[in-house]
Amino acid sequence: MLRSTWEALPVAVRTAIERETGHVHSAVLPDAGRNSDFSATLHTETGTIFSKGIADADGKRGRMHRHEAAVNRFLPPEVAPRLLWRTEVDGWLLLGFEHSPGHHVDLSPGSTDLDPVRDVVTAMAAGLSTVSVDAPSLAEQWARLAAWRRLAKDAPDDLDPWARDHINELTSWETTAFEHVTGNTLTHTDLHALNLLSNDGKVHIVDWAWSRNANPAVDPAFLITRLIEAGHDPAAAETWAGQLPLWQQTPAETKTAFAVAIWGIWGYLERHQPLAHRPALTAAARSWARFRLDL
């Protein structure tokens, strides 16, 4: 998606933002992110903030941004930047957040970012365990997708040979995952390097538009796949996750069910909603699922 620069925004949109921030001296666009029509770090007369906006405020992406705004007040302040304001003008929905300086984390083996990532994921799990948030259900979302069942019904020619030979086992594990992912805790569901910002030994988790109510163990599960994608072998990725109190308490059956379900999700999306990064994610998820199934 091609994001707008500050200068290319409609005058009414810039005016609405500056009504919240004061005069904008400069705007720096991020080097990642694809779900907003505008996103930038804004240096203003009242300070530096991060702003994002969507031109179809009443559309699907608009609903995602409204959801992100709605859940923000429940997020632990040490985990995520605060929402400072929201405004709408001429069909645009605009959000302003505290600025979170820093770099996207490095999840590769030996990275100095791995310990701060562990700490913020632990803080997120602890902080969200005591709040109730109105959010969509991840279990319902997974059940609607039913990725392995879809792949089994209409198996593509390039389906992994092992998966083809074990498709009934995989669909059974997927059904188990639907049961185990059910929960009432707000989860991020999209933890990866671009949504983890590191600064001075601390990490913030950003972009909560995909957050869902679920079993909170699903966040470490998604992150394990990203660690494998970044170069960890499955055993090392699980050893890292084993530092998280939440993962220590997660039953082996749940871990395996999540690994299989995530493999199916990425494999299905790679074929039906192809993006450049998805083949690597499918390969990482396959590696983890096969590791767990062989335990």
List keywords for this structure.
Aminoglycoside 3'-phosphotransferase, Chain: A, domain 2; alpha+beta; Aminoglycoside phosphotransferase family protein; Kinase-like_dom_sf; 2 domains; Phosphorylase Kinase, domain 1; single chain; globular; 295 residues
What does this structure look like?
It is a single chain. The chain is an alpha+beta fold and 295 residues long. The chain has two domains: 11-98, Phosphorylase Kinase, domain 1 (2-Layer Sandwich); 103-293, Alpha-Beta Complex (Aminoglycoside 3'-phosphotransferase, Chain: A, domain 2). It is 45% helix and 17% strand. The chain is built from twelve helices and ten strands. The chain has helices spanning 11-21, 60-71, 114-128, 138-145, 147-153, 161-165, 167-180, 218-229, 234-241, 245-248, 252-272, 278-293, and strands spanning 24-28, 38-44, 47-54, 83-89, 92-98, 103-104, 185-187, 196-199, 202-205, 212-214. The protein has a five-stranded antiparallel β-sheet, with helices on both faces. Strands 6-8-9 form a three-stranded antiparallel β-sheet. Strand 2 (38-44) and strand 3 (47-54) form a beta hairpin. Helix 5 packs antiparallel against helix 7 (167-180) and helix 8 (218-229) packs across helix 11.
Write the layout of secondary structure elements.
Blueprint: H1 11-21, E1 24-28, E2 38-44, E3 47-54, H2 60-71, E4 83-89, E5 92-98, E6 103-104, H3 114-128, H4 138-145, H5 147-153, H6 161-165, H7 167-180, E7 185-187, E8 196-199, E9 202-205, E10 212-214, H8 218-229, H9 234-241, H10 245-248, H11 252-272, H12 278-293
Antiparallel strand pairs: 1-2, 2-3, 3-5, 4-5, 6-8, 7-10, 8-9
